[in-house]
Amino acid sequence: MIGQADILEFLPRTDCGQCGLTCAEFAALLLSRERSPEECPVLHEPDYAGYIEALHELLAQAPPPVMQVDAERCNGCGICVAMCEYHLGNCPEARLGRGPRFHDLVVFHIVNGTAVVVRQDLCTRMLQAAEKCSKCAEHCPTEAISFKL
Ligand code: SF4
Ligand code: SF4
Ligand code: SF4
Question: Average pLDDT, whole number, for the chain?
Fold first, then answer.
């Protein structure tokens, strides 16, 4: 499945900050369809000719988000990151109440004060046929998280 690392291959990875984010954060927002490749000004430079088109091709292969965070409702508290069923078993930093580093394998984390889905394929809802996990949504104090499956 296309993931953040695949998207990052086609970003400058200089963390110049012109988009207000790091390149890794920008990649996460491309996957969640909250940003588009054109919004990275550096990709419009001649050295990166063809990168925007390549990113659009990659994103066309990435499944649309099945888990959504309403950015208007989210207050960035991080409870969902700390409580996530997948994180509890696989991400010690989240389990200890610290924000996971961006290269950790996580379902989502906080970017600029908002929870952003990074690897929806890691969410246990993608694997369970019944009794699907909804722990993050249940603990979210603002009811910002919703699912399409
Ligand atoms: S503007 Fe582009 S190169 Fe700069 S941090 Fe954002 S994504 Fe990376
Ligand atoms: S628990 Fe809800 S309000 Fe808190 S960061 Fe997660 S989505 Fe946002
Ligand atoms: S549904 Fe469960 S596994 Fe999926 S993101 Fe929420 S808490 Fe994590």
Answer: 88
